[in-house]
Specification:
The complex is a heterodimer of chains A (511) and B (438). Chain A is of the alpha+beta class and 511 residues long. Chain A is 21% helix and 37% strand. The chains are: A alpha+beta (511), B alpha+beta (438). At the A-B interface, β2, β3, α4, α5 and β5 of A face β2, β3, α2, β4 and β6 of B.
Chain lengths: 511, 438
């Protein structure tokens, strides 16, 4: 949709504006305004941050020496809408804009940011960050080489051009579907997020990367009532997509999941407590990989020697049918990235290949220490933070077994199906994930629903205990966010159906 | 030169009303934060930042929305505010949305909460490095240490709010924290690790840095040779440092929003004896030098001590203005501040001695709780309680149950309040808890 169409909606009085106010003079303008395409480099167009300014700030940042340095310009517009008690009566919009300035010298990092993108302000921040170093000036480039734009999540319409009038009906549709699916559904809330994030990264070695990173997520929560008993459940979907991604079918599938997950809770019980075989259903169970191995493979922990995986590269850690990959280049995935937040092309890193531990996830600092090329895994929450190694889309490849074979192989255990959260202790390797819905397996058959149990295991031990991997690998469609050292980044995860021969299941009747 | 935040907030309110808002509430804030991290004998990271933000709530034609921006360029800010008012107009009207009435913010407390220490602004690199070195030296003083990271974190936060119906207010606070994280070589590839940080609003309240580093090392050392704990029903002693997170899970659905939305086990409990008589929790925003002290909350509601639970009887919930109106509850505040959890008369050692046999929890790992039903399941690490003392370290365990049942079985509390948290809780003793492990 062109901006002209959008303004047409405004003129019709039905729509409004999530157009960026920073496009000077474009707040609410007559419909005769010509459409201007979103600029290739908004920072240059909107803030006058051209190559000369970048070069000047970079010189100041590296005036006391630098092995590496970068400027991370970011402008993010977030929109949030909430449907509750039948009406969409709450919205939030936010702009986060700033530039983070980093200088790295040896093992040392100096960091500053400013939200004021004027030259004096940026120079002051550069001086603050540069105080970590005390050598002579580094040679800062006078011109920058613009890198090719990525294509992993090229969308037709930026979120800034989509008015609330186009979003409202989708929230209403989700609510109506949820109510129609089961008469016990008592209350429905719908939460909408969309964001346009634009970054420009300039590096000391002369690269200039720009990336437009759209993101959207819809969550539906359901309360169901049977007599006096109330149960709540939810589901969400998220991707780097535009509004056309929200087809009726996709939304209906999400609502179906939320209603099913809620209704089953009336019959669900806690499983018995203790150690038992655990079947991880395909999709969201990728949380196992994220916690049991992913974090432990982030190279910042390993270069410090603090991860349980610090001395395991090249060793056998799992059966030959286990291959685990972190791949940022899956189009439109929530965890996808064209370039990481250090301006390196994002790619795929094989963590475990046929059971052998292969590679950590590196940012530039760790890659240099290990004498390797960066894996494009340097990420940050925003301009407020220095980057560190992070996951993107972490998944296990398909294996030789089938889901049915796996269930038949279990005499007494559980299936884990949906999750709310997980956590890991990097050093000890102990990790947990919280299972919202699952099933009891008895005598090779699925028997009864279970709910609300925490599962705890040890990363390397659990990898060894993956005794079966099915052929049904898939990525989860939910909107996962990973937190590390106070920084949150969007991620994706996936897995085929997997059997872990023994894990500790939280439960009742501990005797 | 410090920015006039009061003027900035007032201008934003004026912009909003000029753009068509019936009412508006603006908060302008600014902060400076400095972070020094020191790893294994050398300075690793210095971060020094100044941040600013403007947040705006808009009420127009029976409709409501909220907004925030870090872009304070005057022209773009005016466009942003205009757009914010336009967005509000596109929503559906909601009879329960109204700006905070003056009755809730008039006559709010003005006593000095002593939240600002001017010396924080004068801390220099040398002082921070001295602390880092002291932390580093003691936290690495053991042959098993693989790595230790010491950190010093300090800063100042200021905000000012203004509203179209007469609210003006300013709040400021400082903080200064330091501590270490220590990782030790354990059995095989395993590492034992823990951390300890101390801090508060005043530099003068900080303990000795070397002692803090020693404490971090000590906490990691007791984790060595940790084994998987047992599957059993047992008495659980939750350490005062770990208690804050458990209290937080209990209180999370204690809000008007959760109750009105039918997603809270707190519904219908006001005046009821729902928990153990040993449980008293007071929300107290007026503690001098308190980590979450304030004169007013983000809606401007006057701060006052609010009993949540007294002797196990539920007294109040967290009620903001919107869900208060919608759920027919009198507003208290929508946001927790400092929590004072009533203490018993014994130190931790005395509690453990009385328990004799059980599980002593020192930290949690993951887990969650269902706010509608109270069902919870949490990962944990800690120690066996053997012969009334701290025994072997255990981990890779879960505790599972229901929060209402659990806090009904709170047997007693200690007198050992953990000071470095806004939840001022002693150690807690619960009976008949389901543990799962080996």
């Amino acid at each position: 949709m062109k901006r002209r169409d959008f303004l047409g909606h405004v003129a019709a009085g039905s729509a409004v504006v999530t157009m960026p106010g920073f496009l000077t003079g474009c707040g609410v303008q007559p419909a005769t305004t010509a459409a201007d395409p979103t600029p290739v480099n908004p920072f240059m167009s909107w803030f006058g941050v051209d190559q000369a300014v970048v070069a000047r700030v970079m010189s100041e940042l590296t005036a006391n020496g630098a092995d590496a340095a970068d400027l991370y310009f970011q402008h993010t517009r977030n929109n949030f809408l909430q449907l509750e008690d039948g009406i969409v009566s709450s919205a939030y919009s936010g702009i986060e804009q700033g530039v983070g300035l980093r200088v790295v010298i040896g093992d040392q990092t100096g960091y500053a940011f400013t939200e004021d993108l004027t030259l004096p302000s940026m120079l002051a921040a550069a001086r603050t960050a540069s105080a970590i170093a005390s050598r002579g000036p580094a040679i800062a480039p006078q011109s920058y080489d613009p890198m090719a734009a990525g294509t992993l999540y090229s969308t037709t319409v930026p979120w800034s051009d989509v008015g609330i009038d186009r979003k409202l009906p989708l929230l209403k549709y989700v609510e109506a579907q949820a109510r129609a699916m089961d008469p016990a559904v008592d209350r429905v809330s719908v939460y909408w997020n969309d964001a346009d994030e634009r970054v420009m990264i300039a590096t000391l070695d002369g690269r200039l990367v720009t990336d437009h990173r759209p993101m959207t997520r819809v969550t539906v929560t359901v309360n169901a009532k049977k007599g006096d008993e109330v149960q709540s459940g939810y589901s969400n979907i998220a991707a780097r997509e535009d509004i056309d991604w929200y087809t009726e079918e996709r939304l209906k599938t999400m609502v179906r999941e939320a209603v099913d997950r809620t209704m089953i809770l009336f019959d669900a019980r806690r499983p018995p407590a203790g150690e038992m075989p655990v079947i991880l259903a395909s999709g969201a169970s990728g949380i196992l990989l994220h916690e049991a191995i992913g974090h432990g493979m982030e190279a910042d922990f390993n270069r410090k020697g603090t991860s349980i995986y610090s001395d395991m590269v090249g060793k056998k850690v799992a059966e030959p049918f286990v291959t685990v990959v972190d791949k940022a280049t899956i189009p439109n995935e929530r965890g996808a990235l064209n370039y990481d937040d250090e301006g390196n092309a994002a790619g795929a890193t094989t963590l475990v290949e046929n059971g052998i531990l292969r590679s950590y996830l590196h940012d530039e600092i760790s890659a240099k220490q290990y004498g390797l090329a960066p894996t494009g895994s340097g990420r940050r929450e925003s301009y407020r933070f220095a980057p560190m190694p992070r996951m993107s889309c972490t998944f296990m490849e398909a294996g030789p077994h089938t889901k049915d074979e796996i269930i038949e192989a279990v005499d007494r255990g559980i299936i884990c199906e949906t999750y709310t959260n997980g956590q890991v202790q990097i050093g000890a390797g102990d990790y947990t994930f919280y299972v919202k819905n699952g099933w009891l397996v008895e005598g090779g058959k699925v028997t009864a629903p279970i709910k609300d149990v925490n599962i705890i295991g040890n990363g390397p031990e659990s990898l060894k205990r993956i005794t079966m991997v099915a052929d049904d690998a898939r990525l989860d469609t939910g909107g996962w966010t990973c937190g590390k050292n106070g920084q949150r980044v969007p991620v994706s995860q996936g897995i085929p159906t997997v059997l872990v021969s023994s894990m500790t299941v939280g439960g009742e009747n501990a005797g | 030169m410090p920015v006039d935040l009061k003027a900035r907030a007032a201008q934003a309110v004026e912009m909003a009303t000029r753009a068509g808002a019936d009412d508006a509430w603006a908060t302008a804030s600014q902060s400076r934060d400095v972070e020094f991290e020191y790893r294994d004998g050398s300075l690793e990271k210095v971060k020094d930042t100044t941040s600013q933000n403007l947040a705006l709530r808009i009420y127009a034609d029976g409709r409501y929305s909220s907004h925030s921006t870090t872009d304070l360029n005057p022209d773009r800010l005016r466009d942003f505010v205009r757009e914010a008012v336009a967005i509000t107009g596109a929503l559906e009207p909601d009879e329960y949305r109204e700006i905070t009435p003056p009755a809730l913010f008039d006559g709010r407390p003005t006593q000095d909460l002593d939240l600002v220490d001017d010396t924080v602004a004068t801390l220099d690199r040398d002082q921070r490095v001295v602390w880092c070195k002291a932390l580093d030296a003691t936290s690495r003083d053991h042959e098993r240490v693989i790595s230790a990271t010491a950190g010093v974190y300090d800063g100042t936060a200021r905000s000012a709010s203004a509203s179209s119906n007469g609210f003006t207010g300013e709040q400021q606070s400082t903080y200064c924290w330091f501590g270490s994280e220590v990782t030790l070589r354990d059995q095989g590839d395993k590492r034992a690790s823990d951390w300890f940080y101390a801090g508060g609003a005043h530099v003068g309240d900080l303990p000795d840095a070397a002692g803090v580093g020693r404490e971090a090392l000590q906490r990691a050392l007791v984790r060595l040779d940790s084994q998987k704990g047992p599957t059993r029903k047992a008495t659980m002693v939750v350490d005062s440092r770990a208690a804050a997170s458990l209290i937080g899970r209990l209180l999370r659905p204690a809000t008007a929003r959760s109750v009105q939305q039918g997603q809270s086990f707190w519904a219908g409990r006001i005046g009821e004896q729902s928990f153990s008589p040993a449980l008293t929790i007071i929300d107290d925003p007026l503690i001098r030098r308190g980590l979450a002290s304030r004169h007013y909350d983000s809606e401007g509601i006057a701060a006052r001590a609010l009993p949540i639970i007294e002797g196990g009887v539920v007294r109040n919930l967290y009620v903001d203005t919107y869900y208060g109106r919608k759920g027919d509850m009198t507003p208290t505040t929508g946001e927790p501040s400092n929590l004072r959890v009533a203490t018993g008369d014994k130190p931790l050692a005395g509690l453990l001695a009385d328990v004799g046999d059980g599980i002593y929890v020192t930290s949690w790992l993951g887990g969650n709780a269902d706010g509608t039903t109270g069902d919870f399941s949490l990962g944990l690490r800690g120690h066996l309680i053997e012969n009334g003392t701290v025994g072997a370290p255990v981990g890779e365990m879960n505790v599972t149950g229901n929060l209402v049942d659990l806090f009904a079985r709170l047997a007693t509390t200690g007198n050992d309040v953990y000071p470095y948290s806004s939840t001022l809780s002693p150690s807690l003793v619960f009976t008949d808890v389901d543990f799962s492990g080996a």
